[in-house]
């Protein structure tokens, strides 16, 4: 079950504000905000691939790096929350799961609920 609090809404609004910064450099407007377990902001970033020439300069990656540096306790961001304005790409999703974990994880439907009876075969013809 997903629980949305007023703090969650405020965090996403902050991420949306941060995302606007990307438009000044021609980057896709994505924002990310990292807060600690007490809700204190550790880092905020927008996409900066165009601005930096770094293909990994996605908002999530920049916020994770800055937050880790600020905490100074390694790469694990246990208890932290990362708010992002869009669903993360594969690269960022992996980094977020490794560093922060997943909160409010939605239950995944079983294959039978999706109408699948057998796994799809990948045998070449
Ligand atoms: Zn990404």
Point out poorly predicted stretches.
104-125
- Principal-axis shape: globular
Helix content: 25-40%
- Spell the H/E element sequence: HEEHHEH
Strand content: 5-15%
Number of strands: 3
Bound small-molecule species: zinc ion
Number of helices: 4
Biggest sheet: strands, sense, closure?
3 strands, antiparallel
The computed structural class is alpha+beta
Rg is: 17 Å
Description:
This protein has 125 residues and is of the alpha+beta class. It contains four helices and three strands; from the N terminus they run H-E-E-H-H-E-H. It has helices at 6-19, 49-52, 59-71, 90-99; strands spanning 31-35, 41-46, 81-84. It has a three-stranded antiparallel β-sheet. A hairpin with a 5-residue loop joins strand 1 and strand 2 (41-46). The longest helix has 14 residues, at 6-19. The chain is globular and about 35 Å long. Zinc ion (ZN) is lined by residues 58, 60, 88-89, 91-92.
Brief summary:
About 35% of the residues lie in helices and about 10% in strands. With about 120 residues, it is of the alpha+beta class.
Write the layout of secondary structure elements.
Blueprint: H1 6-19, E1 31-35, E2 41-46, H2 49-52, H3 59-71, E3 81-84, H4 90-99
Antiparallel strand pairs: 1-2, 1-3
Bound molecules: zinc ion.
Zinc ion binds near residues 89 and 91.
Features:
125 residues; alpha+beta; 12% strand; globular; binds zinc ion
